[in-house]
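Deliverable D5.2: sample structural annotation.
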Amino acid sequence: STNRQNWHGPNVNINLDCLQVGDIIAVTGKLKLMEGSNPATCSAHMRNGARCPTAFLKIKDKNGKEHTSSIGYITGWHPDADGWYDITGQFQLPDFLDGYQGAKFAIYDTDGSRDIVIDNFKMYKVPYQCASLNRNPTFDNGDLSFWYPG
């Protein structure tokens, strides 16, 4: 997403027809912020300026009301050596999914003067598993994925 003038970022229409109320979806991917031709950094704890982007799911219900929920966050304090941040998250689909009119996946909440580059994004249904109360698929391996800033 380039030449942005505000905090809005790229978004894409998605199809949720194969999911049901109560299903849990996860998102993973890579995200890079650019200032001109140089990678830029961000902070998950800032409220404006150099704030890190957030992944959102926007669902328009059967009455046309749009519901926006944050579903993914930057994990870790620093990007990798090439300037890429990991972004991960999970979201349980709410009851207004029944009869929905449309859905979008979006990246928002960062300074409009920066370009946003997205790579390797995936959105998938998390399999239901009774063996563990923890829905975090990377909890046991020490990965920061699916942990959120406080």
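Annotation notes: The chain has no helices and eight strands. The mean pLDDT is 80.
The annotation will be released with the project's public dataset once the embargo ends.
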